[in-house]
Amino acid sequence: MNASSRQARQSIRNRTRTQRAAARITRRGTGTLTTHAIAAGLTPRQASSVASSLRKAATKLGITGQAGIAYRKGRARACTRYTRAQVAALTVVYRPRRADYQACAARLALAA
Predict the structure, then answer these.
(1) How far apart are CA 46 and CA 70, in angstroms?
(2) Whole-Å CA distances, 5 to 1, 2, 11, 12, 112
(3) Distance separating alpha carbons of residues 67 and 58, to the nearest angstrom
(4) Bridge partners (DSSP) listed for residue 67
(5) How far apart are CA 86 and CA 64, in angstroms?
């Protein structure tokens, strides 16, 4: 596989991941903080970092979200799902330093 096809596959994979996360949030009305961050265009590793910072902001603001169960690789895990409006409220307190995280925070604030 040459470099151009590898880059094309990567861009398609990233776009697919983002679109699936956004569709899941639209369909259900809620999503985990990581799902919201992925829908805003971050990679899963970056999204988990942003989500942990947003969780801290949620405790500061007293936003509880909705308890749920997430399934991954056949295992059930407890999770908390938030609406787009709740995530937009969390971004008011969230102050990232990195430029890509700042862009993500702006997209999360506009998504509501």
Answers:
(1) 19
(2) 7, 6, 10, 10, 36
(3) 14
(4) 80
(5) 9
Distance CA 23, CA 81 (A): 15
pLDDT tens digits, one per residue of 50-90: 999 999 999 999 999 999 998 889 999 999 999 999 999 99
Q: What is the pTM of this model?
A: 0.90
Kindly state the tokens that stand for 35: 């799902």
Structure tokens belonging to residue 94: 């969230």
Q: Which residue has the tokens 């369909």?
A: 27
Residue 80 has φ and ψ, to the nearest 5°, of: -125, 130
Which distant-in-sequence residues (6+ apart) come within 8 Å of 61 by Cβ?
Answer: 89, 90, 93
Number of domains in the chain: 1
Domain extent for 28: 3-110
